[in-house]
């Protein structure tokens, strides 16, 4: 019934968050972090290349991994447009098997929250650890469900061409305090010449973790020098974006 990161979700992502589009200052923050190494960086959940492409242009040696063939196809097209080449892997983060080791594995903005269960989250962190060099870093953003309101429903219309567009509806279904996750129903409709041509439904789950809790998880997995940063170090007390940085033993 549900499709996650499907064709319409990819098309809308590309339209609303094109290559180089910044979300709350994520690109400058991550770029500064990535430039601290001359080694290899991996973006986990690379999507359409919104961040990957500006990073490659800035001289960062970076690969991408994603489990959505639609997202990766769009990423490939975006790379070709810019005449850029790098390695993209179609893999689930839970079972990464990449024949390389990285200095940094980063998962910016909402992507880590998309890992829908604690088991998948733990498996993914284990996978990251296996693919990091000694002293390598993870940089991960966490989301907190501050704005979730059960029953809230919003509809937005996005034009693609003069006679086509996507209607997107998001309905907030449930907040599960025990499992620490929110569920929204996302419905995508593609309309061409007044006719509904395609629909897609996503069971959109976002998971959250507390600061102490996530620190303990990282410690248990053997990460060291664990620190957290609010709002990409900007001078604000909004406390919207929580970034964790941790290293593997040298
Ligand atoms: C919100 S998009 C972000 C894309 C990109 N990182 C950006 O910031 O623009 C999240 C991406 O994570 C990918 N993703 C989610 N769960 C994944 C998993 N278990 N393994 C690999 N990729 C995953 C999705 O397919 C999607 O492309």
From TrEMBL:
Ranges of residues in domain Methyltransferase: 41-136
Pfam families, per the entry: Methyltransf_25 (PF13649)
Xref: CDD domains: AdoMet_MTases
Keywords carried by this UniProt record: Methyltransferase, Transferase
Gene Ontology process terms (BP): methylation
InterPro entries from the UniProt entry: Methyltransf_25, SAM-dependent_MTases_sf
Segment forming the signal sequence: none
Record protein name field: Class I SAM-dependent methyltransferase
Source organism of this protein record: Vagococcus coleopterorum
């Amino acid at each position: 019934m549900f499709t996650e990161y499907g064709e319409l979700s990819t098309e809308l992502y590309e339209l609303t968050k094109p290559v180089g589009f910044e979300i709350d200052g994520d690109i400058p923050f991550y770029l500064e972090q990535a430039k601290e190494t001359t080694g290899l960086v991996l973006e986990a959940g690379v999507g359409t290349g919104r961040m990957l492409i500006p990073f490659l242009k800035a001289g960062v040696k970076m690969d991408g991994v994603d489990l959505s063939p639609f997202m990766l196809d769009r990423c490939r097209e975006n790379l070709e447009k810019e005449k850029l080449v790098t390695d993209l892997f179609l893999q689930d983060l839970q079972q990464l098997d990449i024949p390389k080791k990285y200095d940094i594995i980063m998962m910016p903005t909402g992507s880590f929250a998309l890992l829908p269960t604690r088991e998948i989250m733990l498996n993914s962190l284990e996978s990251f650890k296996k693919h990091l060099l000694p002293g390598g870093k993870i940089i991960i953003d966490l989301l907190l469900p501050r704005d979730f309101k059960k029953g809230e429903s919003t509809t937005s219309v996005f034009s693609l061409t003069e006679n086509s567009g996507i209607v997107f509806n998001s309905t907030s279904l449930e907040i599960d305090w025990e499992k620490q996750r929110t569920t929204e129903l996302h419905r995508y409709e593609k309309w061409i010449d007044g006719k509904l041509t395609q629909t897609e439904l996503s069971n959109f789950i976002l998971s959250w973790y507390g600061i102490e809790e996530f620190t303990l998880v990282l410690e248990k997995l053997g990460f060291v020098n664990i620190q957290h940063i609010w709002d990409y170090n900007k001078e604000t007390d909004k406390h919207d974006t929580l970034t964790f940085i941790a290293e593997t033993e040298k």
